[in-house]
Amino acid sequence: MAQPLFRAPAGTRDILPPASARRRGLVRVFADLADRSGFSLLESPIFEELGVFQRLGANNDVVTKELFEFFDKGDPPRHLALRPELTAGVCRAFAEHRPTPPWKIWYSGPQFRYERPQAGRYRQFEQVGVETLGTDDPHADVEVVGLGVRFYEALGMRQVRLLINSLGDSESRPAYNAALAAYLQDRRGELSEQSLVTLERNPLRVLDSKREQDQPVIAEAPVMADFLSGASAEHFAAVRAGLDSLDAVYEVSPRLVRGLDYYTRTTFEFVADALDTAQNAVGGGGRYDGLVEELGGPPTPGIGFALGVDRILLACDAEDAFSGTAPPVEVFVVDVADGRSAVVLCDRLRQAGLGVDRAFDGRSMKAQMKRADRSGATVAVIVGPDEQAAGTATVRDMRPGGGQRQVAADDLVAAVTELLTGGVQ
RNA sequence: GUGGCCGUAGCUCAGUCGGUUAGAGCGCCGGGUUGUGGUCCCGGAGGUCGGGGGUUCGACUCCCCUCGGUCACCCCA
Q1: Which ipTM was obtained for this model?
Q2: Positions 133-192 in A, CB within 7 angstroms of strand B
Q3: Rounded to whole angstroms, what are the CA distances from A215 to A25, A195, A256, A268, A277?
Q4: Where on strand B do bases come within 7 A of a protein Cβ?
Q5: Which of A26, A110, A189, A408 has the fewest Cβ atoms within 10 Å of its own Cβ atom?
Q6: What is the Rg, in whole angstroms, of the alpha carbon atoms belonging to chain A?
């Protein structure tokens, strides 16, 4: 074979079967959980006006360096961008439609960041998430964080750690920022070159450095907890108490900071210990009490999280969880007469609600039976010249030791159903 | 964006010091069983060795560039 003419662009990939089915299954688990918790699906555009994302923070790589931006054919052209995350779009939608709070929504879908690809880091990646807008009740925080905890549990993951912290409110945040910046300036001689650059732009982010050199400085840095206002401290305490009452295991991580600038008060992260790479954060979120207002809406508190589907699946592989779903094909129709029976029988069985597949190209019985086996079907329906002449079909139990018998075409659905529900014949 | 490593059939990999027609397992197709899968046996298709350039009598092998992947930083899910 020659070289393929095209391949998927860097950082993107085709999700082929059976991985695609497993992925869809994961999203379904999340959707069920969110639906049952009173969250409703929001489908927002995959691209937005650039300004929507610029509100995420001017000194943030996601917005400044990693955006896929483009102009449309309007006159004048609109400056648009593929969404690098989903919270901004949700807040834009809230500001635009003014739904009655609290507005609880969930979502799933692709997002785009122009980064150097790596395992668990793609230019097109998928997240599932929830947002609760219009309340700052700490119990809303508990509900959101708890939903995340239960989701990982539902997947059968055991090696996910929950880290939480409070970043304070508009009152306490500036004081902490100033203290942290002063401290870091004081010890700038010990910081790595890159951290010095980060220090100028966003002192908080220095705490996220992974370089060995920075660790001693980070370890002794002032912590937000000491700067929380009374209200913020109380809020944080209520969140922790709520998580305790759910028996949700968490670690207070006083130096946990989040990538996006809009976070206030409650912040949290889910870390997969089964992943021994740098990309081991499988989910994260927090409160963003100012974002809706930033986007021109009324002052509206909000909290939510986003969980990375790609990384979760990687982590599931690593700890052998959520292996996937059963094959949907229950019946395989084999036609070694002229093939016309298979057309009709497949339709009839499918209309009866069964999962049915078949072979094409008039292949040999052996070949078709092999296909039937590979399909995972429990039952094979066989039509040859004999059956066709007699108006019957042979129903074969494909399980080890299973037998077969001929039934009238009209009794086929009943016979197949009986086999599928009745166990080995 | 910076640096390291990797790139051989659809997949996972072997390929000696640069030396003739590049191999295996799995998968796929066909046959053994002219109506029966999962086991077994036989056979077959499938690769210009990621792409381009260079060194050399000769390159899968060495060098450069490039594309892709991967690891660390960065960023973050």
Answers
A1: 0.88
A2: none
A3: 40, 11, 14, 21, 18
A4: 1-3, 9-10, 28-31, 33, 35-38, 46-48, 50-51, 67-77
A5: A189
A6: 28
Nearest nt to the A197 alpha carbon by C1': B74
Q: What is the pLDDT of residues A234-264, one digit of tens each?
A: 999 999 999 999 999 999 999 898 877 788 8
Cα angle A179, A181, A185; round to 5: 120
Longest Cα–Cα distance of chain A, Å, equals 93
Residues of chain A with pLDDT under 50: 1-2, 424-425
Query: What pLDDT is recorded for position A424?
Result: 47
Give me A345's structure tokens. Answer: 């029988």
Which domains does chain A carry?
19-171+229-319 (3.30.930.10), 331-416 (3.40.50.800)
Strand (E) or helix (H) holding A104: strand A103-112
Helix (H, G, I), strand (E, B) or coil at A49: strand
Q: Which 3 state secondary structure label does DSSP give A118?
A: strand
**Residue A99 token pair:** 């739904």
